[in-house]
Amino acid sequence: YSFCTLLENPFQTKESKKKQKMVFGPIMKELVGLGITVGGMVMRSTLEAYRTQAAKNVAAGLTNTGSRVQRSMTRDEALEILNIKPKNKSRLSEAEIRQATINYRKYFEMNMPEHNGPGGSSYLQGKIQGAFENINKK
Question: Which of 5, 7, 55, 114 is 20 to 30 A (C-alpha) from 65?
Fold first, then answer.
């Protein structure tokens, strides 16, 4: 016997069981419909919130990198990371580009993580790499 069978009234007639099912059927149908409606509303509002936040991130210059959101590096930040002080910020001279390359290699190697000990930082290497790529963009 199931639990529901134990709860049934043994003296209940087939006619009264049928009436009971007829009463609970429409109620259950309404409850299921209500659950589907509420679930749909929650999903739509969640999707709309996600879309809104994504649009705000794009407008603010943020990029999604896996599990975190990062702001794109500006040219001024890239120049500061590579310790370059250009005369003209919009266009670097050949000497400044060579100096940026030298500084990039030096800083990148200085921050190379050692395999079994303290040393560099992968995070800083990523920043240095990003700065170098930013400066070399056309």
Answer: 114
What is the model's pLDDT at position 18? Answer: 64
Task: Calculate mean pLDDT across residues 9-24.
Answer: 65
Q: What is the pLDDT of residue 30?
A: 83
Give the Cα separation of 43 and 9 in Å (integer): 42
Mean pLDDT of the chain: 78
**Backbone angles phi and psi of 68, in degrees to 5:** -135, 160
Cβ–Cβ < 8 Å for 49, 40:
no
CA angle (94 as vertex; 92, 123 as ends), nearest 5: 65
Question: What's the 3-state SS for 25-66?
Answer: HHHHHHHHHHHHHHHHHHHHHHHHHHHHHHHHHHHCCEEEEC
Distance of CA 87 to the CA centre of its chain: 39
Q: How far apart are CA 92 and CA 84, in angstroms?
A: 10
